[in-house]
Amino acid sequence: MKKYCILGTDNRSVKLRELYVKEGIKISDYIDGDYIIAPIPFSRDDEKINGEILTVKEILALPNVKDKIIFSGAISNNIKTRLKQNNVKYYDLMELDEVAILNSIPTAEGAIVTAMEITDFTLCSSNVLVMGFGRIGKILSKMLHGIGANVYVEARKEKDLAEIRAMGYIPVNLIDLDKYLEKFNIIFNTIPAIILDKDKLNIICKDCSIIDLASSPGGVDFEFAKEIGLNVVWALALPGKVAPLSSAIYIKEAIDKIIK
Fold first, then answer.
1. pTM for this structure?
2. The CATH number of the domain where 14 resides is what?
3. What percent of the chain has pLDDT over 90?
4. How many other C-beta atoms lie within 10 A of the C-beta of residue 228?
5. CB atoms closer than 10 angstroms to residue 189
6. In terms of domains, do 119 and 229 share one?
7. CA distances in angstroms from 15 to 6, 7, 100, 191, 239, listed in the order given
8. 90 CB-side CA count, 13 A
9. Within a 10 A sphere around the Cβ of 242, how many other Cβ atoms?
């Protein structure tokens, strides 16, 4: 029977480990494991495995590393190159639509929970901006609309702007963003590029809260935002924080399907 190694100390990794144990799967260390299931993201600094003392270099140094399969998500291009150079087979689960789409659900729910925690007003009737109309942006916009918020959604493509309008939200073309920024109570960013730079941050109302859901480098000039007193939260890895069991189930289903 193949041996599984499940790395990571976050709640999602803990739940994933429990799910496999319930099925009678033998959990091993990274040396003996045939399948290495690493955290998401795989690494935050391209050196240490996220949440572990173990390094990427130590895994690559294993004499039998070519016989292993690594499962993770949000694997950096640098690490992907190193894995390929060492002929290590890997799967970036966040590049699979079935995982990324389902993973957007707890991310969106976590974003709303975060907004409720850092504000003293209801989301209902608030003016909220969702930046980006990808997987997370679509689900988050739908949830915010259901709560009763006045949902504005930023996008670049005419197709997306038309869909935003058809869904009952207010479309905001990126080139017109500056005209809208001062009216929002909350801004949710899903774009991993610095869109909210110094010029745009200076337009935003000082009572507005910004929740950045994007992976590194994020979408906000965090240093300048702090300097001018804006309330900004970089809310990363929300699925593992707000819904670790659901997130673990999504990951396990994808891994089991690949292995099968």
1. 0.88
2. 3.40.50.720
3. 93
4. 12
5. 28
6. yes
7. 10, 12, 18, 29, 12
8. 26
9. 20
**Domain, as residue range, for 64:** 4-95
Domain assignment present for residue 259? The answer is no
Q: Looking at the 3D structure of the chain, how many domains does it have?
A: 2
- Dig out the tokens for 23 from the structure: 């099925």
In angstroms, rounded to a whole number, what is the distance separating the alpha carbons of residues 125 and 23? 47
- Cβ distance 216 to 238 under 8 Å? no
- Structural domain includes residue 185: yes
Our measurement of the distance from residue 227's CA atom to the centroid of its chain's CA atoms, rounded to an integer in Å, reads 26
- Whether residue 203 is contained in a domain is answered as yes
SS3 38: coil
CA angle, 62 as apex, 59 and 65 as ends, to 5°? 80
- Continuous segment of H or E residues that includes residue 5: strand 4-6
Edge-first strand order for the sheet with 89-92 is 4-6, 35-37, 69-72, 89-92
pLDDT tens column, 16-73? 999 999 999 989 999 999 999 999 989 989 999 998 999 999 999 999 999 999 999 9
Given a cut of 90, whether residue 188 has pLDDT beyond it is yes
For 56-69, how does the pLDDT look when each residue is reduced to its tens digit (9 = 90+)?
999 999 999 999 99
34 within 8 A of 2, measured Cβ to Cβ: yes
